[in-house]
């Protein structure tokens, strides 16, 4: 639906997770009969969960432990772990930076060059326990570092930026041709982010196995304020899911839609899947884990940009283990623990057996879904996160 902004401009109405609710169907089923697995290229993954490639979220250790739980940790191959042998020492420095100097202090720390030998070392650390190694590189740097990552055994490559397009225009003549580049790689590639039907469709046509959907919804991201760019996630995911259908009709190939950011609770994750996502990528919920390398802080990949930072270092409470947050058991009643159990129960409550079935769930505009009848919870600040 378009609304008139002024005589010369119309705009579509867009919706976030807080604006919608999933409608139960006529059927219910037992949670143990629900399958939340999904397929990424040749890999079958038990949980539709990726940990964001953020230094406060994913270390080689976290990637290994999340893999054991059934998820996928994506390591930032241009981050702290690829710049410093003693990454923990630098992470401790970031945690100690005063609030007013956090951005400038991180810019200085991240001015250390990426070291290809450390990229290889970190990938081998993940691989030594037999898990999948996934790593993220920006479009600007992927050609510089992908070969060393491949040689070290990288299983899944994520080409990730604030916004990634299949038709980047550059006056210097060095623009990355995603279609040609992806075709040359012997591994599944995920690309993103994007937030519109056309961009998602063009990214799918590059040959990617998955497309990241989300521009600016993360807890630590300030892109929407700095650039004014972004689309609320419920609408962005739904548009990308429509692009997936069109691409499937054109080519016969199914491309995964991965909701990236904006999800804090199991309910948010369930809504993302119901809007059409195949999996979710989350950062701040996992930064709360006691194993997370951020020591109670979380920041995005563009927080330390040398000339135009588009992120903030935010504090999180490390109040549970990675296992408790991902698969339980929950010790809180606000939906921030046992995220995958919540998804499974939501699907069972609505009668759906698989991720693909749940994507067909009825969704309703429901601006009062989180406040209706909740005056006591609001007044007492319980159960609301």
Number of folding domains? 1
Determine the strand fraction and express it as a percent band.
15-25%
What does the average pLDDT come to? 94
In CATH terms, the superfamily is Aldolase class I
Low-confidence stretches: none
- What's the CATH architecture name? Alpha-Beta Barrel
Major beta sheet, specifics? 8 strands, parallel, barrel
CATH class designation: Alpha Beta
Please give the count of helices.
16
Q: How are strands sequenced across the largest beta sheet?
A: 6-7-8-9-10-11-12-13
Predict the CATH topology.
Answer: TIM Barrel
Principal-axis shape equals: globular
Helix % is: 25-40%
End-to-end Cα distance: 32 Å
Radius of gyration: 20 Å
Question: Any chance you could write out the topology, listing elements then pairs?
Answer:
Layout: E1 2-6, E2 9-12, E3 20-22, E4 38-40, E5 43-45, E6 49-51, H1 60-69, E7 72-76, H2 80-83, H3 87-96, H4 102-109, H5 116-127, E8 134-137, H6 142-152, E9 156-160, H7 178-183, E10 189-194, H8 197-204, E11 210-213, H9 223-226, H10 233-251, E12 256-260, H11 266-274, E13 279-282, H12 284-287, E14 297-298, E15 314-315, H13 322-327, H14 339-349, H15 355-358, E16 363-365, H16 375-380
Parallel strand pairs: 6-7, 6-13, 7-8, 8-9, 9-10, 10-11, 11-12, 12-13
Antiparallel strand pairs: 1-2, 3-16, 4-5, 14-15
Helix pairs in contact: 1-5, 5-6, 8-10, 11-14
């Amino acid at each position: 639906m378009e609304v008139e902004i002024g005589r010369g401009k119309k705009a579509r109405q867009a919706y976030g997770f807080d604006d919608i609710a999933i409608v139960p169907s006529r059927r219910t089923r037992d949670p143990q009969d629900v399958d939340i697995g999904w397929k990424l290229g040749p890999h079958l993954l038990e949980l539709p969960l990726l940990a964001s490639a953020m230094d406060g979220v994913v270390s080689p250790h976290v990637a290994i432990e999340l893999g054991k739980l059934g998820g996928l940790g994506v390591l930032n191959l241009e981050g702290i772990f690829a710049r410093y042998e003693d990454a923990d020492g630098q992470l401790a420095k970031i945690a100690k930076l005063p609030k007013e100097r956090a951005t400038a202090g991180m810019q200085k720390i991240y001015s250390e060059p990426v070291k290809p030998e450390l990229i290889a070392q970190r990938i081998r650390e993940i691989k030594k326990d037999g898990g999948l190694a996934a790593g993220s590189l920006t479009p600007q740097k992927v050609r510089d570092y992908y070969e060393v990552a491949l040689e070290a055994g990288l299983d899944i490559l994520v080409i990730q930026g604030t916004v990634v397009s299949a038709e980047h225009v550059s006056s210097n003549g060095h623009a990355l041709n995603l279609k040609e580049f992806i075709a040359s790689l012997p591994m599944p590639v995920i690309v993103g982010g994007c937030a519109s039907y056309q961009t998602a469709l063009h990214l799918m046509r590059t040959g990617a196995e998955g497309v990241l959907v989300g521009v600016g919804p993360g807890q630590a991201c300030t892109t929407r304020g700095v650039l004014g760019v972004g689309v609320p996630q419920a609408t962005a995911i739904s548009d990308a899911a429509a692009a997936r259908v069109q691409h499937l009709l054109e080519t016969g190939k199914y491309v995964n839609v991965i909701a990236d950011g904006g999800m804090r609770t199991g309910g948010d994750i369930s809504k993302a899947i119901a809007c059409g996502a195949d999996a979710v990528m989350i950062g701040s919920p996992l930064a709360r884990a006691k194993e997370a390398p951020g020591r109670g802080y979380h920041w995005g990949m563009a927080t330390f940009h040398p000339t135009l930072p588009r992120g903030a270092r935010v504090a999180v409470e490390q109040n549970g283990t990675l296992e408790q947050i991902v698969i339980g058991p929950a010790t809180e009643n606000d939906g921030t623990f046992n995220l995958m159990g919540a998804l499974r129960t939501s699907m069972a409550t609505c009668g759906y057996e698989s991720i693909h079935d749940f994507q067909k769930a009825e969704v309703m505009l429901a601006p009062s879904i989180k406040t209706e009848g909740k005056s006591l919870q609001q007044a007492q600040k319980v159960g609301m996160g």
